[in-house]
Amino acid sequence: MTSSLAPVFYLPHGGGPLPLLGDPQHLALTQFLTQLGSKLPTPAAILVISAHWESPHPALTAAENPALLFDYSGFPAQSYQLSYPAPGAPQLAAQIADKLQQAGFSPQLNTGRGWDHGVFVPLLMLRPQADIPVLQLSLLKGLDPATHIALGEAISFLRSQNVMIIGSGMSFHNMQAFFRPDLVSDNQVSEFNQYLIDSLQPQHSYADQAQRLINWQQAPHARLIHPREEHLLPLHVCFGAAKGATAQVLFNDKVLNKTVLAFGW
Length: 265
Fold this sequence. Notes:
InterPro entries: Extradiol_dOase_DODA, Xdiol_dOase_suB. A hairpin with a 2-residue loop joins strand 7 and strand 8. The protein has 9 helices and 8 strands. The strands form 2 sheets. Strands 5-2-6-1-8-7 form a 6-stranded mixed beta sheet, sandwiched between helices. It has one domain (8-182, 230-264): LigB-like (Protocatechuate 4,5-dioxygenase, Chain B, 3-Layer(aba) Sandwich). The protein is an alpha/beta fold. Helix 4 (145-154) runs parallel beside helix 9 (233-242). The longest helix has 14 residues, at 186-199. It starts with 7 loop residues before the first strand and ends with a strand.
């Protein structure tokens, strides 16, 4: 991670609100995110790209005080009483929209949408004080990996403005296998994870790293690990935003019986 620039992180957010409920299969993740947050310098703002918001064009939350979007069901009542009263960042959202437009995107400012659990669940562990402005950037519905790298490159300027960028997803996301672990073996997960780790090694040029991420479906067991790639693509945005910085593996442990990764730049 480059000390003169705000950090970029691709982080696992776990299953719904479970990391906040003391779930034993999330203890390693909860401990990691809590400890990571305690070590971080205070950013001017936090931008989160969550796996749980897709839009035809890049969309940004632009309300002064966004509500929480409880986009999960079947959890205890306390899961729907959580709060994260951080302010929004409408002026920053407008600035980002201008930069995205310059990069050839057609951004939209959304004043009605709240922050989904891909935003507030990790932030409740990383920054429980809820005292830093937060905004959310959507994925693009086409789920094209190259476009998401370009999206990240277009927001890379934020790092020099002390805006921390978080891609909130899961490097493993096969919902059936979370409930039936035998569907995907530990070795299969390890081989896919190793492809991601190898792809981000500094001996590869930025262009080669990008090509490996664009061709992620060539990774071992790729479609078994990600039947749909919305939880992987926040990594591509982070990679573009880090723009050639060296990635570090920050977390390599089990969540819901499957090993997931976190990267930092």
